[in-house]
Amino acid sequence: MMGGSERRVRTIADLAQLAGVSPGTVSRALAGKALVNEETRRRIQSLADEHGFRPNQMASRLRTRRTGVIGIVVPLGHERRQHLSDPFFMTMLGYLADALTESGYDVMLSRIIPDAEDWLDRVVDSGMVDGVLLIGQSNQYDAIERVARRYRPLVAWGVTLPDQVHVAVGTDNRAGGRLVGERLIARGCRRIAFLGDASAPEIRQRHDGVAEAIAAAGVDAQLIQLATHLASDLMEREIAAHIDALLEQGGGTLPIDGIAAASDMIAMTAVRVLTDRAIIVPDALPVIGYDDLPLSAQAVPRITTIRQDVATGAQAMVDALFARIAGQEAGSVILTPELIARDSA
After folding, report:
1. Using one digit for the tens of pLDDT, what is the confidence trace for 42-77?
2. What DSSP letter does each residue of 33-93 carry, written as one string?
3. Which of 116, 184, 218, 290 could form a disulfide with 258 if both were Cys (CB 3.0 to 4.6 A apart)?
4. Residue 294 carries which DSSP code?
């Protein structure tokens, strides 16, 4: 504890008086500006360290009109019951947060149910963030496009469509779906169930890719759409209802011979539901997921899936955001998907 005779250094003015320089010189020295010679800068920094002085970050941010904070937003328009604990969100969030904090930024995380048209306007106009990263477009593509026309530091994980205004980073979902379809067709599947909610752009493209693969193969095959949500508390009940309805339709025999799942979580849940009914994967039918989450390689059976390079994608999102904060141009990035063959197919 400081003695009574020792000077307290609480402000830049106090430190300036102690160092025998102007407050402006102290401010520039602590900011590392080249206008202050190195010897003076070191002396001021040494005095600051000695007295435990830390610049007022809020005041500095007010002067520079920067907050030092990036908003990471998860919009849940089509999946209102999905949680941030979803393994895909957590994987993507980890990579984004690492890249941002290593660059000196803080993170503000928001899970948003878009109940009003201006949900994204409220985020970008809050004055609390220097830019926004969206983990997914949900069914809010039009809202994102509208805001992106006036707000540049905005980057989303998701699809890139023709004439798109907002910058997006994501996998070529249609190509990924084709890989799924080709794999299932090659295994002899002719009645394929697609488990997913096609109201989301990414999942719609995955579905369409499977359909394209079936058409290109020139075989007599059918693709059956079975609406399945990503929210964990709905997913298992929906898949169980689908499987039970199919079993009833087939008189106790499953009238499908392959499953294309819109995500790894859907694929793993489908395997569990099938196993509960003594339908063994892949012996009875193959199941293919999408994402290549770490869990997919630990499941039993291990899940054949489509790899999205989430680490590369997250870094591309951060790079594009920083470029746009700096006033530079940055375009969308479409990553190439890869089939990861494991036990389930």
Report:
1. 888 888 888 877 766 555 554 556 778 999 999 986
2. -TTS-HHHHHHHHHHHHHTT----HHHHHHHHT--SEEEEEEE-SS-TT--TTSHHHHHHH
3. 184
4. G
Strand duo 338-340 + 305-307: pairing: antiparallel
Is pLDDT larger for residue 81 or for residue 149?
149
Instruction: Render the burial of 64-93: b for 16+ CB within 10 Å, e for the rest.
Output: eeebeebbbbbbbbbbeebeeebbbbebbb
State how far the Cα of 50 lies from the Cα of 163, in Å rounded to an integer.
57
Q: How many CB atoms lie within 10 A of CB 201?
A: 22
Query: Where is pLDDT greater, at 230 or 286?
Result: 286
Q: What is the DSSP letter of 296?
A: G
pLDDT, tens only, 261-290? 999 999 999 999 999 999 999 999 999 999
The arithmetic mean of pLDDT across residues 176-187, rounded, is 98
CB of 177 closer than 8 Å to CB of 207: yes
For the CA atoms of 35, 36, 41, 47, what is the dihedral angle to 10 degrees? -120
In sign, the C-alpha dihedral spanning 266, 269, 273, 274 is positive
Joined tokens for residue 2: 């400081």
Full-model pTM = 0.79
User: Could you tell me which of 88, 86, 146, 137 has the C-alpha nearest to residue 114?
Assistant: 137
Judged against a pLDDT cut of 70, whether residue 113 lies above it is answered with yes
Q: How far apart are CA 115 and CA 138, in angstroms?
A: 13
State the DSSP string of 3-42.
Answer: -TTSPP--SHHHHHHHHTS-HHHHHHHHTT-TTS-HHHHH
Q: Give the mean model confidence (pLDDT) for residues 76-100.
A: 84
Q: Report the C-alpha gap between 21 and 25 in whole angstroms.
A: 6
Q: Mean pLDDT over all residues of the chain?
A: 90
Sign of the C-alpha dihedral computed for residues 139, 140, 142 and 148 taken in this order:
negative
